[in-house]
């Protein structure tokens, strides 16, 4: 389950970052996503790659240890691509079980980065 606000936040962040990739953190509990936290894309080639700002990632993990929301995954956009893992995504994946949201063409799709690669997930937007 995902709340409506994180989806809207990811779509807005991708639109604002275009033609560069945007990226950020997915926060919540277990597999429930309650917040999408935008971060700076620190990759030297942001037109085709993303790199989550390490300081933002460290701060989110510190907040989690202090009782804040858990880092359940990451998101990024494909400004000129599809909402599915690219070959570059597959090469850079950590296979740590985290959720990846990919934003492209006005849609957000979700995947689990498992030991055997990406698995498509079915997320339902929580009605308000």
Give a brief outline of the structure:
With 128 residues, this protein is α+β, with helices and mostly antiparallel strands. 25% of the residues lie in helices and 33% in strands.
Comma- or semicolon-separated keywords:
128 residues; alpha+beta; six-stranded mixed β-sheet; 3 helices
Which CATH architecture would you pick?
3-Layer(aba) Sandwich
CATH superfamily: Cytidine Deaminase, domain 2
pLDDT averaged residue by residue: 94
Output the CATH class name: Alpha Beta
Alpha-beta content class:
alpha+beta
Q: Radius of gyration in whole Å, from Cα?
A: 13 Å
- Supply the number of helical segments: 3
Strand content: 25-35%
| Share of helical residues | 25-40%
The name CATH uses for the topology is: Cytidine Deaminase, domain 2
Number of strands: 6
List the helices and strands in order. Answer: HEEHEHEEE
- For the record, the count of structural domains works out to 1
* CA-based shape: globular
Biggest pleated sheet? 6 strands, mixed
Assembly context of the chains: single chain
Read across the widest sheet, the strand sequence of neighbours is 2-1-3-4-5-6
In the predicted model, the low-confidence regions spanning at least 5 consecutive residues are none
Give the terminus-to-terminus CA distance.
Answer: 12 Å
């Amino acid at each position: 389950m995902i709340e409506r606000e994180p989806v809207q936040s990811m779509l807005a962040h991708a639109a604002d970052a275009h033609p560069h990739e945007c990226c950020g953190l997915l926060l919540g509990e277990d597999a429930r996503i309650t917040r999408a936290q935008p971060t700076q894309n620190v990759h030297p080639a942001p037109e085709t790659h993303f790199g989550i700002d390490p300081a933002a990632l460290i701060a989110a993990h510190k907040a989690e240890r202090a009782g804040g929301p858990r880092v359940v995954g990451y998101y990024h956009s494909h400004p000129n691509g599809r909402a599915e893992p690219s070959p570059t995504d597959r090469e850079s994946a950590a296979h740590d079980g985290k959720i990846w949201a990919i934003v492209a063409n006005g849609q957000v799709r979700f995947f689990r980065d498992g030991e055997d690669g990406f698995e498509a997930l079915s997320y339902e937007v929580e009605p308000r």
